[in-house]
Amino acid sequence: MLRLNLLLLLAVMASAIFLVHTQYESRKLFTELDRAEAQARQLATDQQRLQVEKRAQATPQRIETLARERLQMKSATPAITQYVQDGSGTAGAAR
């Protein structure tokens, strides 16, 4: 009878240790899941912010400003436009 009691005591202790270990692993996995979800939300926010910045960078006004400042481009005006004429004189007839 003493052997049976010891065997049952060992079985109860082993199952208690297994239960504690399982609960610890469960909490650990839940914490990792929570961190992953927070990181996913942060990445989604960053993606939206970058999309807004991308749209802001591609506005026609910004492109025109960059063309004027960095490339020293000017708007086409009749004063700086050079017209090329056809040497054969058939430019008007070809239309």
From TrEMBL:
<keyword id="KW-0132">Cell division</keyword>
<dbReference type="Pfam" id="PF04999">
    <property type="entry name" value="FtsL"/>
</dbReference>
<keyword id="KW-1003">Cell membrane</keyword>
<protein>
    <recommendedName>
        <fullName>Cell division protein FtsL</fullName>
    </recommendedName>
</protein>
<keyword id="KW-0472">Membrane</keyword>
<keyword id="KW-1133">Transmembrane helix</keyword>
<comment type="function">
    <text>Essential cell division protein. May link together the upstream cell division proteins, which are predominantly cytoplasmic, with the downstream cell division proteins, which are predominantly periplasmic.</text>
</comment>
<keyword id="KW-0812">Transmembrane</keyword>
<comment type="similarity">
    <text>Belongs to the FtsL family.</text>
</comment>
<keyword id="KW-0131">Cell cycle</keyword>
<feature type="coiled-coil region">
    <location>
        <begin position="26"/>
        <end position="53"/>
    </location>
</feature>
<dbReference type="GO" id="GO:0051301">
    <property type="term" value="P:cell division"/>
</dbReference>
<dbReference type="InterPro" id="IPR011922">
    <property type="entry name" value="Cell_div_FtsL"/>
</dbReference>
<keyword id="KW-0997">Cell inner membrane</keyword>
<keyword id="KW-0175">Coiled coil</keyword>
<comment type="subunit">
    <text>Part of a complex composed of FtsB, FtsL and FtsQ.</text>
</comment>
